[in-house]
Specification:
The protein is globular. The longest helix has 26 residues. By secondary structure, it is mostly helical.
Length: about 140
């Protein structure tokens, strides 16, 4: 088995502010996922696409389960501390927030919920740039 030992420069350390900035998004995603399971109507409204028909709630629960999984997966990677992996997955995940914003744009137009999605994308872009910069240092 060929395993590489990470050097100090390749580890995202828990005492680093960047660690906590990176951890914020996946922890919030887990919270949003739980909210979609226990409060599908309220969560869908907060997301920007209000669903009031109880027959559609199973789709909200499915979204909640996927949000919880995604949040746990990214949190696990962050806790493992491999800076290169965290930087790559964080960069790729930006497309989720951008895509969500386009869904809101096509459904509601330029409405307030778009700021949550694209604001998240902007925050994640800043954190991703810092992660990549730290990885090169």
């Amino acid at each position: 088995m060929n395993t590489k030992t990470l050097t100090n420069g390749e580890i995202l350390k828990r005492n680093s502010p960047l660690f906590w900035f990176a951890l914020l998004v996946p922890v919030l995603i887990i919270g949003f996922g739980i909210n979609f399971i226990v409060n599908p109507e309220g969560a869908s409204t907060g997301y920007g696409i209000p669903i009031h028909d109880p027959s559609a709630f199973p789709f909200m629960w499915i979204k909640g389960i996927r949000d919880i999984f995604a949040g746990l997966a990214v949190t696990t990677l962050i806790l493992k501390g491999n800076l290169r992996t965290v930087a790559a997955i964080y960069t790729i995940a930006i497309f989720i927030a951008i895509g969500d914003g386009f869904v809101i744009l096509s459904h509601l137009g330029f409405a307030p919920p778009i700021f949550m999605h694209w604001g998240t994308a902007l925050y994640m872009t800043i954190v991703a740039v810092l992660l990549h910069r730290e990885n090169k240092a």
